[in-house]
C-alpha cells in the first residue's frame, strides 16, 4: 500500500551506487545549448498568405527546419522560437549548409529586418 521498495545487498557499495542512481533520477535535467548554425538576413520577402520570409546567407554551420532559433538584432535577442520552413529557390528543403542562401520562416514572428542574425541551436541534456 505504501509503495516501499525493499532491497537486499551483500556489499555496501552496491547499495550506495543504487541510491545515487535513484537520486539522480529525481533531479531536474540540466541542458547545454549547442549552436548548429548562424545566418545573416540580407533581404525580406513579404508574402500575402505566409507573412515575412527572411532571405538569408548561412555564414556558419547549417540551418535546419524545426530547430530552435533566436533572432538577434544589434546584439539583443529579439525572438526565440522555431524555424518552421526553409526554402532554396522555390523548393522546400530540410537543411541548408554554410555558404548557401535560403529563405527562412520563423514561427509566429514577422518583424524581421535586414542585418538580423538567426542562430539555430539544440538543447543537449547534461548528465549530472
UniProtKB/TrEMBL annotation:
It holds the Pfam family GTP_EFTU_D2. Keywords: GTP-binding, Nucleotide-binding. The keyword Nucleotide-binding applies. The keyword Zinc does not apply. GO terms for molecular function: GTP binding; translation initiation factor activity. One of its GO terms (cellular component) is cytosol. Residues 51-118 form the Translation elongation factor EFTu-like domain. PANTHER family: TR-TYPE G DOMAIN-CONTAINING PROTEIN (PTHR43381:SF5), TRANSLATION INITIATION FACTOR IF-2-RELATED (PTHR43381). This is Translation elongation factor EFTu-like domain-containing protein. It comes from marine metagenome.
Amino acid at each position: 500500500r505504501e509503495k516501499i521498495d525493499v532491497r537486499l545487498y551483500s556489499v555496501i557499495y552496491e547499495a550506495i551506487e543504487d541510491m545515487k542512481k535513484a537520486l539522480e533520477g529525481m533531479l531536474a535535467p540540466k541542458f547545454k545549448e549547442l549552436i548548429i548554425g548562424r545566418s545573416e538576413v540580407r533581404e525580406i520577402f513579404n508574402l500575402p498568405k505566409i507573412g515575412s520570409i527572411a532571405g538569408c546567407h548561412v555564414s556558419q554551420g547549417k540551418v535546419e527546419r524545426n530547430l530552435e532559433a533566436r533572432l538577434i538584432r544589434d546584439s539583443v535577442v529579439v525572438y526565440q522560437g522555431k524555424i518552421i520552413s526553409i526554402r532554396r529557390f522555390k523548393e522546400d528543403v530540410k537543411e541548408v549548409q554554410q555558404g548557401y542562401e535560403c529563405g527562412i520562416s520563423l514561427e509566429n514572428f514577422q518583424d524581421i529586418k535586414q542585418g538580423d542574425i538567426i542562430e539555430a541551436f539544440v538543447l543537449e541534456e547534461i548528465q549530472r
